[in-house]
Amino acid sequence: MIPDHPRPASPSDLFWSFTWLALQGFGGVLAIVQRELVEKKQWLTLEEFVEDWAVAQILPGPNVVNLSLMIGDRYFGLRGALMALAGILTLPLLVVLTLAALFAGISDVPGVAGALRGMGAVAAGLIAATGIKLIAALKRNVMGRLACAALASITFVAIALARVPLVWVLLGVGGLACAWAYRQLGLVRASERAT
Questions:
Q1: pTM of structure
Q2: Fewest C-beta atoms under 10 Å: which of 63, 84, 92, 149?
Q3: Rounded-to-10 torsion of CA 173, 175, 179, 180
């Protein structure tokens, strides 16, 4: 179902929009994608973005590529999905190949290594800031704020402090989150039937 808010004007609009996203997204695409698609273009609401991003994360492949395919398909079917995919990959691929060729000659320069470390810190800050912005979407999440906060805390402790491998955290905490969401959705459906 196509939502009733602004949408891409054409498949070429998808191509250029995702090209622009990809060219901005070195190291921290989540912040850029959220700002462009939710705040500027308004192709997605914050809640739709959180839901689509969650699906994009569990599919194989890069998150933003998965998201581009989903959005392209939603608005223009297979043609839109292919145009969004081409936009997210074509020009950035050329930029990366050019940078790789240039970087090969200067990779041993200490200033270059320091600049790359600095870019990593900036990307981490962008991701943290976007995570804070996305907290507002939890207001209407069926799991509830407390459950979401508890699951996020358990995930942080398991990965950052206990160093549990990601696959086990995804299976354990992710499975727990799925079970809780399923239970909550069942309660919502039951209350809707009762009224």
A1: 0.59
A2: 149
A3: 20
Digit-coded pLDDT (tens) for 141-164: 888 888 888 998 999 999 999 999
- Cβ atoms of 91 and 19 within 8 Å: the answer is yes
Percent of the chain with pLDDT over 90: 31
| Range in 43-47, 123-127, 174-178 the model is least confident about | 123-127
Q: Which residues contact 32 (CB under 8 A, 6 or more apart)?
A: 21, 24, 25, 126
